[in-house]
Amino acid sequence: GNSVTQMEGPVTLSEEAFLTINCTYTATGYPSLFWYVQYPGEGLQLLLKATKADDKGSNKGFEATYRKETTSFHLEKGSVQVSDSAVYFCALSDKSGGYNKLIFGAGTRLAVHP
Amino acid sequence: NAGVTQTPKFQVLKTGQSMTLQCAQDMNHNSMYWYRQDPGMGLRLIYYSASEGTTDKGEVPNGYNVSRLNKREFSLRLESAAPSQTSVYFCASSKATGGQGNEKLFFGSGTQLSVL
Hints:
By secondary structure, chain A is mainly beta. Helix content of chain A is 0%, strand content 51%. Chain B is built from no helices and eleven strands. In chain B, strands 2, 4, 5, 6, 9, 10 and 11 form a seven-stranded mixed β-sheet that branches. Chain B is globular. The A-B interface holds A 4, 32, 36, 41-46, 49, 51, 89, 93, 95, 99-102, 104-107 and B 4, 40-45, 48, 50, 56, 58-59, 90, 92, 96, 98-102, 104-110.
């Protein structure tokens, strides 16, 4: 079945460092891909999305490119801030089973230190 | 701007006890969802309601029941809690009527449930 695999965390970085969080997926067809972020004590919120191959989603300095050839959707940011500390979830849309649903990865915790 | 409100935030139950998790959204969304979040497993869909008056099973429905009371409210009931149901539960909503797909989900802040 469809699935999402994320790099294990935690990822610990100093402020202004470059961030990459890897995400690969297994899916039939052409799912849409998403990154959600969960700040401490809060629910998840959509960070960015891409709906077809080679699309780049971007928001708040974060970017991710839908790579069909490598089935990847890696999250990147050029210069992280302490306020970026959160758990990041990669997800894909799954249209099997007669309804659309989101399949989430296990999440990657990011800790950014001053 | 409340968004999605869940109650309670924390709950401790003994095995066999029952409880209902409440969820309400004020965004006039059609679809509502219940997820559980477990370490190393991400979020898994328990039940969803694509529109008022309908509910359907997700990936892990066993041991749970739901009620879409009206367009705003979607409750999750544990009839006889088990330790395997210890988890963080999230309610979410989206504007879509036919499922999630490309729609943006709005999440509540979660309920941390421990079953002893």
